[in-house]
């Protein structure tokens, strides 16, 4: 009976967080189809390994960790190829004038190393607490705090550099 209850909890967790999970996968691979594949693989892994979940209350962070690990595995396997979808091509194509500062932030965020980007995405875009981010990334809370600080510093510096380049 516990197994059925846990499966129902997982199904609800996946359903309630489907957009967030997709966005999380997309933040790693930056390709719609690959992100969808990662989400599908993550759901399969979660369903087939549900017995490994010791605390059903930690379902969301457990599932997010599966998504992060599946995304990282995907990146390792496909290291040699960095594809772009049509939206990204249009964003970077010449003749497109970028007048939105959030696009600059998006580009700058994508240029960050994965360890910093992960922390920013989970903390600010997925609205997880520092402790939850640490659990998802399987890191110490202080490590996450340090990475978050460093990531924000990098973003500030890069955004400032981009702004000063536009002015000159």
Automatic annotation (TrEMBL):
Keywords of the record: Sigma factor, Transcription, Transcription regulation
One GO BP: DNA-templated transcription initiation
InterPro entries: RNA_pol_sigma-70-like (IPR039425), RNA_pol_sigma-70_dom (IPR014284), RNA_pol_sigma70_r2 (IPR007627), RNA_pol_sigma70_r4_t2 (IPR013249), RNA_pol_sigma_r2 (IPR013325), RNA_pol_sigma_r3/r4-like (IPR013324), WH-like_DNA-bd_sf (IPR036388)
Signal peptide: none
Any GO molecular function: DNA binding
Sequence ranges assigned to domain RNA polymerase sigma factor 70 region 4 type in this UniProt record: 104-155
Domain RNA polymerase sigma-70 region: 14-80
Pfam families: Sigma70_r2 (PF04542), Sigma70_r4_2 (PF08281)
Highest taxon above the source species: Bacteria
Family: Belongs to the sigma-70 factor family. ECF subfamily.
The protein's name: Sigma-70 family RNA polymerase sigma factor
Organism: Paenibacillus anaericanus
């Amino acid at each position: 009976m516990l197994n059925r209850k846990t499966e129902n909890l997982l199904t609800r967790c996946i359903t309630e967080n489907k957009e967030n999970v997709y966005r999380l996968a997309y933040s790693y691979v930056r390709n719609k189809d690959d992100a969808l594949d990662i989400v599908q693989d993550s759901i399969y892994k979660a369903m087939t390994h549900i017995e490994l979940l010791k605390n059903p209350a930690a379902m969301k962070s457990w599932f997010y960790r599966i998504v992060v690990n599946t995304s990282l595995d995907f990146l390792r396997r496909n290291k040699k190829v960095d594809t772009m979808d049509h939206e990204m091509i249009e964003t970077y194509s010449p003749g497109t004038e970028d007048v939105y500062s959030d696009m600059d932030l998006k580009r700058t965020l994508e240029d960050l190393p994965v360890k910093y980007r992960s922390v920013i995405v989970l903390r600010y875009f997925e609205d997880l607490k520092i402790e939850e981010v640490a659990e998802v990334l399987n890191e110490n809370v202080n490590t996450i705090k340090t990475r978050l600080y460093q990531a924000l510093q990098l973003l500030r510096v890069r955004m400032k550099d981009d702004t000063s380049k536009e002015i000159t």
